[in-house]
């Protein structure tokens, strides 16, 4: 009867469910921060969350106060209803307490209400006294149960304080919400819970106009059961409420074993990014506060409540009186945590402008009000603090994927958080050379079985894309020098090295990182002038490549001048589809032959033996040149390049820092090209985008050119955190997550591709917009170039800024490359989300176009 | 009566206590892995840990088995003794079960024993029936309570299986161990618990010689209470047992609220780096396994036990029969987890050699048996797997500080783990430019108030030391170009930049990282030849600096040739103490004037206006040249250098990547020098050594040279993870931790210095050893150069390898710089630990010397 449970089928079903909710919910997140609002958590059931809520309500409303106040008590999820109703408990206890205390509060006046909004049919039937209907109802019904009360002090009069209690959803059975919901056919999605909660919060905290604004309001949202008890959909409550990231108080456990439960619950909340303002628990004579204080250090205050009478007939009035001081202190702690948070949030833009030195940023162009205050991230979204009128938290889709690194959906982020804690606790960081430890080994295995499959046999770890490239260049040059006899020349004659200059073959518009070695491998650009890097010389032969893009709904080819002149008939060739562009049949085309002869010609000038300059490596970003402006290179041209170099024994480096790990819809862009490199560099998405780590993969023959008797022949390049355990742990998790169809629902084609994320019709529509010069949509990338001229074009252009500001208002955070703007999602992002982004973008392009037309007309009329 | 507790005094006392234990314990860690050994954890008290242990014992011993087995049950910490005794429970239940089941096991024969080793005096008195003595006893006494039993099947005979039950420490009160221990004056330090536990494990698992080796043994170590319940010293049990990092099974909670408790307990264990082989709990009809399975995905099996009869008179025999299948499955899961772990550990060195490409490593010189398998790190120590004879885990002090990054003691590591989880859950990674978020802001604030205090006003984040240096160079060159009119020349005439070559002023033997820009700023070395980096040219004026070191117990000055000739009388000047070397009074000395005129002369050749070469920056590692061989530079020389450059408006860069954050006993080495830079680079210890992050700090005037109308004038250098939240979170925690005397007991001198970590007498003794050329001891660094000649000297030398192998056998993991070896501890490491390291080193130097003398004599006699 009892046995090991099968994990697969049911676990999976549940997973999909959770993912769906977390990815699609809350397009209109708006969490008021204008009044203190706290979640009340507990480390287990029946520890007195509702007593704490009641005590806080009393402390807010039943003390002498200069003007009326409001206390808002929300219970989103209630089971065991109507026998159990925490909001009714708060309502009734406070009514009774106010009667008892009113003699000491002469001008006191309190209006209280309790509202049960929605209930399952069994719960509703039970409260309405109806028979359970024969036809089974499913879903939740509006209950509208409402009660109110008024109390006045001996003198009375004046404006009344308010106690507002609300239960959002109620079920009848006194079990965990997920069970009650299932058994009563009343499952409620996480999004619905959050939406109703947000509605209540906004109504009570932001409603009431100017007058309401002045009222002091204190709000608690009481959870059900323990911190990780499932909510009605089955999501753990600590996950369910995460998008709001409200601060919390934790009701701990004063009993035997309670220290452990309290600490573990605290850790589960921290592992989800929550802040806890205080821990409070009932005294059981075990002095549990001492170990808790020791554990918490100075971070969090711990408060102890007197023992609660066990006699069920006790009305607790005496207990509340005895506890008054603790609740007053607790409320003060919460208020102080709230004001600290608010002051800090308001202060941050100014401080940032004073002490940060942001990369790639002209500080003079960033006024304080343009600084984005990021309170947290949740999956693909930033939670952004806004201080206009009422302070609140809103949401912006991270459409720049935080410099192209981001992959996690909310579930992956939660799992990565736990894995990061585990890796830090197990390994911290340990030395890599001559050592082995699990995360580094598993990561290397996954890389070689995945992105290196079929060609790579060694993994060289470093910290970021730039260092991965510098390592790749050193590898390639060593191999080239061996193969072309340069090293034996150097060995024979120490000065020979001075007569050899190794160069790379690379593409105009390419970009490989910001350290000098990586910069030397890119063509001159805004980044490379004397002003930026006096040491840059540009050690490469930089070819101007043919590009492809969509315009007016059609994919087209654009040839550089050199090739255009050679093969004019092919300029502006149109493709029937994007697939055609990648098709291998093109290898046999005239164009392929033209490409080949063009490249051969270019290489000819460096191929003579005994020359000073040698092309020692081909380095390129396969398919898309990222920082260079999101240009899609004709894959045929890149394939031909690889073949030409291979035939001349020039090692081939693919810079997949941007393109790797599904960025372009395949695990590598090499797969899209249909050819393999000798060396490839990965970073960014490799760790899911949570932590820096890079890897340079290489073939055995490359590796072998560093083998010898002496350490001096080894590759003497490394960084402190080479193969660091946390980075490798994140990579192991993310690499698996992205390619597993059970965790990434976008995976199709037997695990080889992502499904199409950008709706084709919308893409075509945008590519036909008059403001748009060209569009590229591939994998997780959607890019467009705004039609612009003169100083409006190029990297330093501010042309797109009004468009970007508007998009941020729509909840889309983008960052431009001059007049090129892009939307980038994660490998797991739902196509529906991408469509929403495109729709919003299109709408804003219309505004943008109008704005510029008007501007132009104005300037014309001024001109005329 | 009940109120907010004061956090400070008592929490602090407790903290010190924990730290002391964790830092000094287990110099002889040796955890047998030759038989499966598991910790039994529970998410709360009274969930049936002992039932699970008993069930596993029955499953091991009371099934038909081909040959005798042994089951070892250890209960390190027992309270409520003698009324409660889990080892007695296992012993008695199993005896009874074996009587019932023996009819089905004809050849069965079982010898059982139960042993209570140590008890508090009240517990001992209670079991021995003595009166409690009038004079209060403190400490624990040997109890030696022992019972045994024998059972045979119907046929009997043959070798007997064995059940060995042991309670290590027992207290009388049925409360949490820390309370019982305190109340019964029987506090036991963590180290003592672990030592006794290890002794029992080794005795039972490794004893018995060759014959014993063949016996199949299964061992469980049952914890007390919940996972985070305090042990006898007050340390949480999940922290107490962490040095062994035994895998575990978690006994969960099947009751209402139990899902939350089980998940939270699981997360607390993961947050301490434990692996959990299975979760098992008693059924309460709530189907808690479903949400648990969903949460755990495929990682961990979940097993459900039938409800335990509540009737206390029930002997549970039927229940154990009913549960048999579950326990058999549980045991299988545990065995399978054990074999997977062992196979992997044994396989790792080979796989590592096949697929890793280690930096700075000649793979041909690293045979499989030389690869270190690191199972985990705990504070300053690696836990290393050894497969010789019996497999076991041993400990090695990470004396290379994992490439000079390490700072955490065990407590900081635990806290960092939780912070890493929190930061990942709250932020993951979010875009930095034009944004602000708490960890980046707080980190920047702490940097400017700390290491940048008094001079820096801006923080530029990057990924590692190399990138921090490249950024620093770009900053310095811009400022220099402005100040010296070079930029206006370039602006007027585009080709002017080609007529200007900016260089650095740097020291011979300096090292600033492995990317090309950082390499260009260092003098030619093993790392810079054509073989390693064909693009290196060495763009600097590299001065040979005077060094200081200890030899024969005395600090001496060594002048480079150029200076030696000038001031021969000062060569081999001796200092009375290390303090004298740093004393500012030396600024007025003749030597200072000599240094100054020497430097002026050198600079003269580049100072002419209109010249091609310009010294655009001074860059140096203050006080110690790290990778260059741990050379201590005469601080007076560096101070003079800074002054000379400042007078010529050459920006000064301090590379504090290695020296920063207490590495040399001060928060910065600049403090030791007594002067400030214009730009400084930090990395390594900044995050405590757990995760990559770097920062380049700069003054306002440097920053202002990048302000203007255009983005093109901004500093266009950045990395994907600039100011990433996790790195900044780690930095915030570590920066505070290291300088707070409450968390770092080494802090003295009003928070400005570390106390002396290396015993002066021992240091002098080593510096007088004939095998030793010179010694440097400063802050956390102890370095020595072995006296060596020819190919035995220098970076590629293998001269030290026998010494290093011996040190690893002593539990010290070092990594040499050729014939220079060093010991490096963390800022919080106890001086006692450092002394142990020095003592071991001295002993091994003796062996080393003998070994080389013999070798020499042999070669002489062969020669003769």
Q: What oligomeric assembly is this protein in? A: homodimer
Strand order of the largest sheet of chain A: 5-4-6-3-7-2-8-9-10
What is the class of the largest domain in chain A in the CATH system? Alpha Beta
Question: What is the largest interface, and how many residues per chain?
Answer: A-B, 204 and 204 residues
Number of strands of chain A: 32
CATH architecture of the largest domain in chain A: 3-Layer(aba) Sandwich
CATH overall fold name of the largest domain in chain A = Aspartate Aminotransferase, domain 2
What's the gyration radius of chain A in Å? 32 Å
Main location (chains A, B): mitochondrion
GO biological process, one term (chains A, B): biotin biosynthetic process
Subcellular location (chains A, B): Mitochondrion
Organism (chains A, B): Quercus rubra (Northern red oak)
Q: Could you please describe the fold and organization of this structure?
A:
The structure is a homodimer of 864-residue chains. Chain A is α/β, with parallel strands linked by helices and 864 residues long. Chain A has three domains: 170 residues, Aspartate Aminotransferase, domain 1 (Alpha-Beta Complex), CATH 3.90.1150.10; 309 residues, P-loop containing nucleotide triphosphate hydrolases (Rossmann fold, 3-Layer(aba) Sandwich); 329 residues, 3-Layer(aba) Sandwich (Aspartate Aminotransferase, domain 2), CATH 3.40.640.10. Helix content of chain A is 38%, strand content 20%. The first copy, chain A, contains 27 helices and 32 strands. In chain A, the strands form six sheets. Chain A has a nine-stranded mixed sheet with strand order 5-4-6-3-7-2-8-9-10, with helices on both faces. In chain A, strands 15-26-25-24-21-16-17 form a seven-stranded mixed sheet, with helices on both faces. In chain A, strands 1, 11, 12, 13 and 31 form a five-stranded mixed sheet that branches. In chain A, helix 2 runs parallel beside helix 3 and helix 14 packs parallel to helix 24. The longest helix of chain A is centred in the middle third of the chain and has 39 residues. The N terminus of chain A is likely disordered. At the A-B interface, helix 1, helix 9, helix 10, strand 10 and helix 11 of A face helix 1, helix 9, helix 10, strand 10 and helix 11 of B.
């Amino acid at each position: 009867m009892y046995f090991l449970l099968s994990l697969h089928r049911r676990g999976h079903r549940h997973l999909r469910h959770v993912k769906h909710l977390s990815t699609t919910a809350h397009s209109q997140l708006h969490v008021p921060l204008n009044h203190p609002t706290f979640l009340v958590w507990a480390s287990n059931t029946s520890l007195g969350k509702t007593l704490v809520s009641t005590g806080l309500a009393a402390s807010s409303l039943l003390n002498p106060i200069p003007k009326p106040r409001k206390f808002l008590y929300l219970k989103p999820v209630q089971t065991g209803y109507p026998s159990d109703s925490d909001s009714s408990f708060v309502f009734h206890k406070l009514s009774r307490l106010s009667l008892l205390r009113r003699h000491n509060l002469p001008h006191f006046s309190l209006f209280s209400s309790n509202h049960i909004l929605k209930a399952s049919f069994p719960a509703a039937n039970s409260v309405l006294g109806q028979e359970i209907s024969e036809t089974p109802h499913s879903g939740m019904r509006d209950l509208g149960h409402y009660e109110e009360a008024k109390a006045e002090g001996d003198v009375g009069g004046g404006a009344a304080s308010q106690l507002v209690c609300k239960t959002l959803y109620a079920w009848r059975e006194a079990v965990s919400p997920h069970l009650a919901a299932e058994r009563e056919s009343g499952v409620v999605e996480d999004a619905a819970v959050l939406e109703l909660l947000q509605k209540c919060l906004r109504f009570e905290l932001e409603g009431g106009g100017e007058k309401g604004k002045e009222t002091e309001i204190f709000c608690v949202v009481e959870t059900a059961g323990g911190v990780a008890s499932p909510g009605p959909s089955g999501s753990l409550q600590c996950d369910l409420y995460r998008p709001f990231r409200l601060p919390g108080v934790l009701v701990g456990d004063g009993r035997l074993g309670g220290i452990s439960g309290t600490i573990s619950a605290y850790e589960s909340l921290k592992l989800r990014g929550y802040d806890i303002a205080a821990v409070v628990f009932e005294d059981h004579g075990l002095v549990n506060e001492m170990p808790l204080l020791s554990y918490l250090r100075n971070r969090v205050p711990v408060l102890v409540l007197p023992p609660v009478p066990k006699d069920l007939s006790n009305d607790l009035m005496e207990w509340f009186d005895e506890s008054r001081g603790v609740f007053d202190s607790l409320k003060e702690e919460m208020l102080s945590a709230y004001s600290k948070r608010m002051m800090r949030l308001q202060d941050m833009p100014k401080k940032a402008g004073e002490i940060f030195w942001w990369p790639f940023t002209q500080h003079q162009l960033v006024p304080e009000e343009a600084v984005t205050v990021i309170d947290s991230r949740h999956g693909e979204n930033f939670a952004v603090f806004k201080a206009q009128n009422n302070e609140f938290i809103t949401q912006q889709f991270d459409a720049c994927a935080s410099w192209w690194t981001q992959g996690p959906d909310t579930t992956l982020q939660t799992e990565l958080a736990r894995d990061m804690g585990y890796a830090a606790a197990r390994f911290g960081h340990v030395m890599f050379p001559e050592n082995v430890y699990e995360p580094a080994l598993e990561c290397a295995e996954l890389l070689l079985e995945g992105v290196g499959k079929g060609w790579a046999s060694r993994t060289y770890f470093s910290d970021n894309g730039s260092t991965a490239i510098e390592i790749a260049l050193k590898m390639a040059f060593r191999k080239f020098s061996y193969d072309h006899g340069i090293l034996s020349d150097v060995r024979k004659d120490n000065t020979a090295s001075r007569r050899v200059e190794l160069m790379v073959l690379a593409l105009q518009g390419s970009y490989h990182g910001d350290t000098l070695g990586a910069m030397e491998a890119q063509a001159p650009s805004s980044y490379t002038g004397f002003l930026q890097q006096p040491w840059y010389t540009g050690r490469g032969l930089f070819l101007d490549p043919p590009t492809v893009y969509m315009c007016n709904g059609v994919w087209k080819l654009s040839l550089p001048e050199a090739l255009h002149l050679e093969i004019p008939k092919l300029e502006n060739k149109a493709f029937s589809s994007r697939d055609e562009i990648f098709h291998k049949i093109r290898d046999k085309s005239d164009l392929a032959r033209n490409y080949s002869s063009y490249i051969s010609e270019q290489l000819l000038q460096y191929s003579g033996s005994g020359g000073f300059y040698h092309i020692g490596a081909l380095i390129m970003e396969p398919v898309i040149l990222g920082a260079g402006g999101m240009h899609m290179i004709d894959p045929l041209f890149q394939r031909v390049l690889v073949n030409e170099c291979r035939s001349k024994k020039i090692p081939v480096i693919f810079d997949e820092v941007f393109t790797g790990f599904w960025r372009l819809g395949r695990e590598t862009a090499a797969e899209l090209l249909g050819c393999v490199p000798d060396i490839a560099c990965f970073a960014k998405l490799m760790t899911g985008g949570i932590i820096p780590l890079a890897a340079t993969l290489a073939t055995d023959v490359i590796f072998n050119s560093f083998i010898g008797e002496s350490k001096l022949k080894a590759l003497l390049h490394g960084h402190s955190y080479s193969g660091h355990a946390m980075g490798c742990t994140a990579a192991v998790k993310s690499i698996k997550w992205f390619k597993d169809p059970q965790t990434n629902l976008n995976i199709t084609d037997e695990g080889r591709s992502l499904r199409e994320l950008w709706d084709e019709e919308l893409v075509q529509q945008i590519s036909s917009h008059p403001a748009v010069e060209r569009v590229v949509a591939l994998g997780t990338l959607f890019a467009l170039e705004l039609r612009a001229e003169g100083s409006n074009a190029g990297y330093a252009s501010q042309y797109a800024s009004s468009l970007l500001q508007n998009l941020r208002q729509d909840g889309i955070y983008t960052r431009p490359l001059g007049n090129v703007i892009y939307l980038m999602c994660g490998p797991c992002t739902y196509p529906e989300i991408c469509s929403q982004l495109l729709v919003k973008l299109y709408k804003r392009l219309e505004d943008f176009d109008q704005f510029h037309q008007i501007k132009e007309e104005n300037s014309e009329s001024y001109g005329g």
